[in-house]
Design brief:
The protein is of the alpha+beta class and 448 residues long. It has twelve helices and 17 strands. Helix 3 packs across helix 4.
């Protein structure tokens, strides 16, 4: 017998299950992978599998909104951030993880918890009763997606998401490439030499850009006219915006000194460590909809990658999300069926950390409800509160699009201040607000 049913064992569902179980409630966690069903993007059956980058982005809690979100989640006993810290790999100032070790760690922790029952099953319909958290992510199975559409009475919104290739380290020519973080920045567990850099001359860059535009792409078919999410834009779509776009985006050479010339390259392709043993490296910002054969041919023209062997090639899949500002209340409940909460990327947040953060909040709201208490929403001055507010009402429903956490979602700092000072003011204010929120209720604490 369970107290609550969670549908989906990704980042949000795993985090929600952990939060509820840690408060003493019995959880049934349904995950369709392992039951004979699979998504277009996943490769295995592990819980909290990372299907795109292995990076949780900046871990700087003083100057960055997502780094602040990391810290708030740590303070609340987050399973996802906790396992991220255990399985981190060098990535400059970012928190990047060994993707397999991370998923294995989350799966082991949930499997060992006495209050969690993991069931490998596909759920095709929203439950008509009983507390439920839907955390099926942007790759929700069509049958359940149809049930959600029926329950909400609204058409789902959709956008394309793309994943980047992963390269075997021993196939990279280090006579051409070199190790360096931009500006030699040292992050958690890093050395200032956390990225592999493949330099391009002006002529090589322009030839690459032209070939990128000419390369054969995945056909859209029924996915036509669905917008891309700006934060995970296929590299060839960025290239279409202008010949210099990539050079001021993922291929910028600023802050990287080619040891052969002592100068910044005209353009650069960076690779970031993808596993703890450093045998796999992913191509930063190289999400793509190029066909597989085209990827191999084109990416082997990059200096240093002429003999690259790919552990995974890039791909494209369709992501779906609901119109949360219109459909959900301030505690993530479906307004016309309040026994159901939504969490994770299906709510329209974007990013691994944001997905897990909304799972954390859904779990804590549900735990309070089960305990007969009311947990107030975190204040908007916090990263958690700013993200939640955007999802559940601050954003304009008709133009709602996936969003990463950023300081633009926070209440503005009054008066004129320098940009660097303003970031510190945001984070200082957030920590003060969190202390006040955590003092309000035992369910705000990280204690079990």
């Amino acid at each position: 017998m369970h107290d609550i049913h969670i549908i989906g064992g990704g980042l949000a569902g795993s985090e929600a299950a952990w939060q509820l179980a840690s408060k003493g409630f019995k959880v049934r966690l349904s995950e369709m992978r392992g039951s004979g069903s699979m998504t277009p993007a996943h490769q295995g059956e592990g819980l909290a599998e990372l299907v795109c980058s292995n990076s949780f982005r900046s871990d700087d809690a003083q100057n960055n909104a997502v780094g602040l979100l990391h810290q708030e989640m740590r303070d609340l006993g987050s399973l996802i951030i906790g396992q991220g810290d255990i399985h981190k790999v060098p990535a400059g100032s970012a928190l990047a993880v060994d993707r397999d070790g991370f998923s294995d760690g989350v799966t082991a922790a949930l499997s060992a918890h006495p209050n969690i029952e993991i069931v490998r099953e596909r759920v095709d319909q929203l439950p008509e009763s009983g507390l439920t958290i839907v955390a099926t992510g942007p790759l929700t199975a069509p049958s359940l997606a149809e049930s959600i559409g029926t329950a909400t009475g609204k058409d789902q919104l959709a956008f394309f998401d793309a994943i980047a290739p992963i390269v075997h380290r021993d196939s990279i020519d280090m006579e051409v490439a070199w190790f360096q973080s931009r500006w030699n920045k040292v992050g958690p567990g890093g050395t200032g030499k956390d990225y592999i850099n493949c330099p391009m001359t002006k002529e090589q860059y322009y030839a690459f850009h032209a070939a990128l535009l000419a390369g054969e792409k995945t056909e859209f078919r029924e996915w036509e006219n669905v917008p891309y999410f700006e934060g995970c834009m296929p590299i060839e779509v960025m290239a279409e915006r202008g010949v210099e776009t990539l050079r001021f985006g993922p291929m910028k050479g600023v802050g990287l000194d080619d040891p052969k010339t002592g100068r910044w390259p005209y353009a650069v392709v960076q690779l970031r460590q993808d596993n703890a043993s450093a045998t796999l490296w992913n191509m930063v910002g190289f999400q793509t909809k190029l066909k597989y054969a085209e990827q191999v041919t084109l990416f082997r023209t990059i200096p240093g990658l002429e003999n690259a062997e790919f552990a995974r090639l890039g791909g494209l899949h369709r992501n779906t999300f609901i119109k949360s500002p219109e459909l959900l209340d301030a505690q993530l409940r479906l307004k016309n069926a309040p026994h159901i909460r939504f969490a994770g990327q299906i709510t329209g947040c974007e990013g691994y950390v944001e997905s897990a953060a909304i799972g954390l909040l859904a779990g804590r709201f549900a735990a309070a409800e089960l305990a007969g208490e009311t947990l107030t929403s975190p204040p908007r001055e916090m990263a958690l509160g700013a993200l939640l507010s955007h999802i559940t009402g601050e954003a304009e429903a008709e133009t709602y699009q996936p969003m990463n956490v950023n300081f633009g979602l926070f209440p503005p700092i009054p008066g004129k201040t320098k940009k660097a000072d303003r970031k510190l003011m945001y984070t200082d204010r957030a920590r003060e607000a969190m202390q006040g929120w955590m003092a309000q209720s035992s369910l705000s604490s990280a204690e079990s």
